[in-house]
């Protein structure tokens, strides 16, 4: 039953919540990280949308700061053989769970809708690899794309970054870290990003339980990621706390209305605007956290990805003569 939940929930979100209650899986915080990963790996195939074909799909290993990193490279339908726009995708999962497979359909959609090359990164996970391991891996992947653009058939001047939830956090931090690069990211596409590890926003109270991602689970994720409370104030963990966001890439920010991260996503979009960064802010008022990974159960997931691609095209003049799906 979902009668105690908000009447403003989209039917597809309510259906996914019903499925979760029927499964009666224990919360991640009741077990170990490895148990959480196994549970997540069992659950995400029942939520994902269609894994549509792309023009090509390859995997390769690159050197990372903590050892080899695996990249999955998608060349979308219609992407040019050379000089294509590119996107580095950073998966969500609270820095603890998630992998290349859990966000495969999103990467396929992005590659085809934007006729681009998407590089998805399997970064190191916490708590085995605490902050800043994940962001160091993201930096390495971006550098690989910048330096190896010719080999990848991409334009080093047209690399965007994207991510959902904790991946959105990593994408925002990466844009801040890369401000001084020769070819910094040109756009950031953020789906319900985590931007403040203090976890004190009012949406943590409004949606603390019953809407998928709970406040208790989010605290469990964060506490596995950081080494101690001092890391919470570090802008590389909480980009909302950066002294300035000026000069970073224009942003698309997607907000789920019934999400504990809603308020900090809104706050980050406002900070960007206040610091002179162009923003396209889109809200899905009836949706819950993670809805972009729930394409099997309704159209909102693909609509959000399409909106992100449309924003990217609007920010990049080279897309002027093409149309998004």
From TrEMBL:
<feature type="active site">
    <location>
        <position position="165"/>
    </location>
</feature>
<dbReference type="InterPro" id="IPR029058">
    <property type="entry name" value="AB_hydrolase_fold"/>
</dbReference>
<keyword id="KW-0378">Hydrolase</keyword>
<comment type="similarity">
    <text>Belongs to the 'GDXG' lipolytic enzyme family.</text>
</comment>
<dbReference type="InterPro" id="IPR002168">
    <property type="entry name" value="Lipase_GDXG_HIS_AS"/>
</dbReference>
<dbReference type="InterPro" id="IPR033140">
    <property type="entry name" value="Lipase_GDXG_put_SER_AS"/>
</dbReference>
<protein>
    <submittedName>
        <fullName>Acetyl esterase</fullName>
        <ecNumber>3.1.1.-</ecNumber>
    </submittedName>
</protein>
<dbReference type="InterPro" id="IPR050300">
    <property type="entry name" value="GDXG_lipolytic_enzyme"/>
</dbReference>
<dbReference type="Pfam" id="PF07859">
    <property type="entry name" value="Abhydrolase_3"/>
</dbReference>
<dbReference type="InterPro" id="IPR013094">
    <property type="entry name" value="AB_hydrolase_3"/>
</dbReference>
<feature type="domain" description="Alpha/beta hydrolase fold-3">
    <location>
        <begin position="87"/>
        <end position="292"/>
    </location>
</feature>
<dbReference type="GO" id="GO:0016787">
    <property type="term" value="F:hydrolase activity"/>
</dbReference>
């Amino acid at each position: 039953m979902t009668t105690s939940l908000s009447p403003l929930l989209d039917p597809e979100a309510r259906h996914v919540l019903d499925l979760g209650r029927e499964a009666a899986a224990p919360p991640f915080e009741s077990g170990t990280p490895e148990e959480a990963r196994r549970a997540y790996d069992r659950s995400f195939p029942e939520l994902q949308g269609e894994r549509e074909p792309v023009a090509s799909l390859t995997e390769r290993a690159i050197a990372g700061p903590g050892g080899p990193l695996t990249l999955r490279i998608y060349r979308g339908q219609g992407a040019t053989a050379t000089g294509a726009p590119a996107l580095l995708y950073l998966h969500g999962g609270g820095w603890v769970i998630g992998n290349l497979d859990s966000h495969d359909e999103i990467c396929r959609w992005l590659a085809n809708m934007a006729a681009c090359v998407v590089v998805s990164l399997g970064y190191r996970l916490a708590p085995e690899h605490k902050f800043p391991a994940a962001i160091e891996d993201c930096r390495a992947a971006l550098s690989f794309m910048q330096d190896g653009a010719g080999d990848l058939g991409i334009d080093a001047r047209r690399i965007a970054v994207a991510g959902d939830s904790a991946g959105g956090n990593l994408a925002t931090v990466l844009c801040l870290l890369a401000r001084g690069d020769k070819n910094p990211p040109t756009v950031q596409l953020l789906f319900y990003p985590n931007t403040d590890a203090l976890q004190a926003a009012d949406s943590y109270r409004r949606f603390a339980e019953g809407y998928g991602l709970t406040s208790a689970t989010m605290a469990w994720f964060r506490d596995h990621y950081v080494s101690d409370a001092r890391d919470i104030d570090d802008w590389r963990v909480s980009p909302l706390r950066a002294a300035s966001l000026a000069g970073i890439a224009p942003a698309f920010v997607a907000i789920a209305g019934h999400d504990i991260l809603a308020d900090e996503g809104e706050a980050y979009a406002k900070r960007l605007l206040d610091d002179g960064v162009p923003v396209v802010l889109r809200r899905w008022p009836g949706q819950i956290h993670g809805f972009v990974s729930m394409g099997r159960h309704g159209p909102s997931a693909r609509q959000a990805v399409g909106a992100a691609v449309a924003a990217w095209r609007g920010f990049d003049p080279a897309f002027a003569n093409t149309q998004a799906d």
